[in-house]
Design goal:
The structure is a single chain. By secondary structure, the protein is of the alpha+beta class. It has 5 helices and 3 strands. It has a 3-stranded antiparallel sheet. The radius of gyration is 21 Å and the shape is elongated. About 15% of the residues are buried. It comes from Niastella koreensis.
Length: about 110
């Protein structure tokens, strides 16, 4: 059974979120990314590979270097998922607000 990786798994890890944040600002090679962390270059490479498999970054070969670039449109999946719950809670809070206004009027 092959394991599929998705954007939710990718953003669950703080190191990967930080890598996404770095790459959202500029394209970087793996060595430049690794220099920002207190973990091995191999560990950073595994995070980069994970992000690539999820479609959150692309890796482009330029000469001997591999540069990583963010593909932030993939985060729309997260936005859509969160929005459905935001709408649910907005409805609940609107209902609560209406109820509180109703009982305040009864007290007067």
């Amino acid at each position: 059974m092959t394991q599929t990786r998705d954007v939710f798994q990718a953003i669950a890890d703080p190191t990967r979120r930080q890598i996404i944040d770095m790459l959202a600002r500029e394209s970087l090679n793996v060595n430049a990314i690794a220099s920002e962390f207190n973990i091995t270059r191999q560990a950073v490479s595994l995070h980069v590979q994970f992000l690539n498999e999820c479609g959150l970054i692309v890796i482009r070969q330029q000469g001997r270097e591999r540069y990583c670039e963010a593909k932030l449109d993939k985060l729309n999946e997260v936005t859509a998922w969160v929005d459905q719950y935001r709408k649910y809670w907005d409805k609940k809070f609107d209902s609560l607000e209406g109820y509180l206004e109703k009982i305040q009027k009864k007290k007067k």
